[in-house]
Amino acid sequence: PETIYKFQERRKVAVVSYGGFPQDPEVSGLRKKLYDQVIKDGLKPKLDENERPQFFFRQHNVKACCTEGGLGMVVYEWRPKFVALNEIGIELEL
């Protein structure tokens, strides 16, 4: 296997901790709350080509299993929601 590193430009983001998964129904409400707080604080969300804010979900409870042929599977490690290790984020203008 070969490892390739790709340089990414500096980013500015705002995040909120969340213990659930990306498909949970409450994610939409948390994204709205995060967006409203960013606007209230005078920050400017970075927009995509359709003029929509760029949200992301960072998940820290996933483990990947790699084989010689590549990615084998992904295992979700169960943790209670109150641990809140995952994050919902929005990209901001620098």
Describe this structure as you would to a colleague.
- By secondary structure, this protein is of the alpha+beta class.
- 15% of the residues lie in helices and 33% in strands.
- The chain contains 1 helix and 5 strands, in the order βαββββ.
- The strands form 2 sheets. The chain has a 3-stranded antiparallel β-sheet with strand order 1-5-2, covered by helices on one side. It has a two-stranded antiparallel sheet with strand order 3-4.
- A hairpin with a 2-residue loop joins strand 3 and strand 4 (70-76).
- The chain is globular, with a radius of gyration of 16 Å.
- It starts with 11 loop residues before the first strand and ends with a strand.
Strand order of the largest sheet: 1-5-2
Largest sheet: 3 strands, antiparallel
- Class computed from helices, strands and strand pairing: alpha+beta
- Gyration radius over CA: 16 Å
Secondary-structure element pattern, one letter each: EHEEEE
**Helix content range of the residues, please?**
10-25%
Short description:
With 94 residues, the chain is of the alpha+beta class. The chain has one helix spanning 27-40; strands at residues 12-18, 55-58, 62-67, 70-76, 86-92. Helix content is 15%, strand content 33%.
Task: Tell me the layout of helices and strands.
Layout: E1 12-18, H1 27-40, E2 55-58, E3 62-67, E4 70-76, E5 86-92
Keywords, please?
about 90 residues; alpha+beta; 1 helix; three-stranded antiparallel β-sheet; two-stranded antiparallel sheet
